[in-house]
Specification:
Layout lengths: L12 H19 L10 H11 L6 E6 L6 H21 L3 E6 L2 H13 L17 E6 L4 H6 L4 H4 L13 H7 L15 E5 L5 H7 L14 E5 L4 H9 L5 E4 H11 L5 H37 L1
Parallel strand pairs: 1-2, 1-4, 2-3, 4-5, 5-6
Length: 303
């Protein structure tokens, strides 16, 4: 008769200790980002350089299309880019125009502006709002709106997030006077385009890729896209063709951008957690092998 062994259903103490240690090592960098050094790709450096090269008094147009489902992957790059752009608003008098092509993106962008850029809530209590920057809110319409923002922005976005007429805002008057036709904001008034999305990059390439800055060697596409790592392959075709300048693709690229602006955040913390987990895993493998071979050698010596 075969005797059945009773199973308690509990992990051995050593296993529980391993899982607890793993959890602690993952939690520490998530709460307190360390910003461990990681290799920075040429794409992240090019995106950083694009913001640095916006001239004094230049204009950045940002479309926010992030979604809550891709927030973990795209969010780090988005928050880091916004921090960087708003630093230039202070140091170089840059103007920033933001709008959202999705409901999720509208909410996420407002949260990031409050939490990571440090702007007050509501935004219209900020003395620079309407003068140096504006958030136009969610504007539904897909590619039609993308095209409208670089043909006649005031007609496409007559009011901002709060219902204020944009035509009366100082930031719109300033941008409209930069290039002919005067009083109409189009793609020639924009120095740098940025879009956050989780779909195909084609629509923004079609509508914004024709605008650029010939003086800096980007005649067709002074445009940065922040997208999931899965979109990077399709974006490379446009980058190599000169229709797009660079991409911040996924969580890893977001962490690289955070290190470039010297502000570790969402991306750096997740990369730190992954690095800690990998180091712990390697240590477990080495430790287990040391214990195994030491016990084996001990048994051999006792024979």
């Amino acid at each position: 008769m075969v005797e059945e062994k009773k199973v308690s259903g509990e992990f051995p103490k050593a296993d529980r200790l391993i899982f607890l240690t793993f959890l602690v090592l993952m939690m520490i960098p998530m709460i307190f980002p360390i910003g461990l050094p990681i290799p920075i790709s040429s794409l992240s450096r090019e995106a950083f350089k694009a913001v640095e090269e916006v001239p004094n008094g230049g204009v950045i147009l940002i479309e926010e299309n992030n979604a809550f489902g891709t927030l973990v992957d795209i969010g780090p790059g988005e928050s880091a880019f916004l921090r960087h752009a708003f630093e230039k608003l202070v140091t170089k008098d840059v103007r920033i125009i933001i709008y959202s092509g999705s409901i999720d993106g509208n909410q996420i962008s407002q949260r990031f502006l409050r939490e990571y850029v440090g702007l007050p809530d509501p935004f219209n209590t900020d003395p620079t709002y309407g003068k140096l920057w504006v958030h136009l809110g969610w504007i539904p319409g897909g590619e039609t709106i993308i095209a409208g923002m670089v043909t006649n922005m005031a007609a496409t976005a007559p009011v901002d997030l709060y219902g204020n007429p944009t035509v009366n805002m100082e930031v719109f008057k300033y941008v409209a006077a930069r290039a002919p036709p005067i009083d109409i904001i189009n793609g020639n008034d924009i120095n740098l385009f940025m879009v956050v999305h989780n779909t195909s990059p084609d629509a923004w390439i079609r509508q914004w890729g024709q605008y650029g800055d010939p003086q800096r060697g980007f005649p067709h596409g002074n445009q940065i896209q922040i997208a999931s790592s899965a979109q990077q392959a399709s974006a490379m075709v446009f980058i190599q063709a000169g229709q797009m300048r660079s991409i911040i693709g996924g969580q890893r690229a977001g962490a690289e951008y955070e290190l470039l602006i010297q502000r570790p955040g969402l991306g750096a913390s997740t990369m730190d957690a992954q690095n800690f987990a990998h180091i712990f895993g390697i240590a477990l493998i080495i430790g287990a092998n040391i214990i195994f071979w030491s016990q084996r050698l001990k048994r051999r010596s006792e024979k």
